[in-house]
Amino acid sequence: MDQPILDEGADLLRKLWSSFVPPRIIFLSWRMLQNRIPTIDQLIVRGLVFSDPHLSCPFCSTTLESSQHLFLECEFSRNVWHNVFTWTGIRLELPSSLGHLFFLLRSMFLDKVKRKWRDIFWHATIWVLWTNRNEIVFRNKTVSHFDFPYQIKIISWHWWMYRNGCRPGFTFAAWCFDPWLCILRG
Length: 186
Ligand SMILES: [Zn+2]
Prior knowledge:
Residues 12-81 form the Reverse transcriptase zinc-binding domain. By secondary structure, this protein is mainly α. It has one domain (10-185). 59% of the residues lie in helices and 0% in strands. It contains eleven helices and no strands. The chain is globular, with a radius of gyration of 17 Å. It starts with 9 loop residues before the first helix and ends with a helix.
């Protein structure tokens, strides 16, 4: 049986679908929070691969790959989250559970406009971690965590620009400098 990652329940999971990002991006988070993406631990549980010490996390190669490890516990991913928090001014200690991280990120904004857009950084980070993981696993690519912040910034900027009517005046440089300023003025 799958052990859901999100302890806070189905209501929070439903709210995921109101995020201002493309449905396929939401779908990845939705599956991940239910522990239903094909990480190696899940493939072993389903009997699709045999347990093998070489089948470890593609980022750090030290631990069996699970969603909990890949998206949160891995030193590589922790650096990515810290970078996102620094960029967005989010003051948060990474919790021990991925579901709790999602819960905290959804709970911390009081401002109405910020609440509307709060999921965008979560989705961008999860998406970039997963797609780079797949580049390593399926295309044997080498990735650097130095590239991740740029990828997160550019993909979230594209989503925001698309939903915001692609108005001029909000350059990528402005987004990199202060995304909340763009969101609040948008
Ligand atoms: Zn790792």
